[in-house]
Amino acid sequence: MCSKNHGEMCNLAELTPDSLKNTIVHKEKLSPVLTLFEIRAPLIANSAKAGQFVIVWTGEHGERLPLTVSDWDAANGTITLIFQEVGRGTIELGRFEVGDEIPSLAGPLGQPTEIKDFGTAVAIGGGVGTAIARPVAKALKDAGNELITIVGAREKSLIILEDELRSFSDELIVTTDDGSYGRKGLVTEPLKELLDSRKIDFVVAIGPLPMMRAVADTTKPYGVKTIVSLDAIMIDGTGMCGGCRVTVGGKTKFTCVDGPDFDAHEVDWNELRARKAFYFEEESKDRQATLAGGDE
Amino acid sequence: MARGGPRNKMPQQDAAKRVKNFDEVALGYTEEQAIDEAERCLNCKHKPCVAGCPVNIDIPAFIELIKSNDFTGAAAEIKKTNSLPAICGRVCPQEEQCEKLCILAKKGESVGIGRLERFAADYEAAHSTAEAAVEPENPGLGQYNVAVVGCGPAGLTVAGDLAKKGYSVTIFEALHKTGGVLRYGIPEFRLPRNILDREVKYVESLGVKIITDIIVGRTFRVEDLLRNGFEAVFVGSGAGAPKLMGIEGENLSGIYSGNEWLTRINLMRAHREEYATPIKIPQKACVIGAGNTAMDCARTAMRIGSKEVTIVYRRSRSEMPARAEEIENAEEEGVKLMLLTNPKRFIGDEKGAVKAIECLRMELGEPDDSGRRRPVAVKDSEFIIQADTVIVALGQNPNPLIRSTTEGLETQSWGGIIINEETGMTSIAGVFAGGDAVTGEATVISAMGAGKIAAEGIDQYIREKHDITTE
Question: Do the bridges between strand B354-367 and strand B383-386 make them parallel or antiparallel, or are there none, so unpaired?
Answer without folding.
Answer: antiparallel
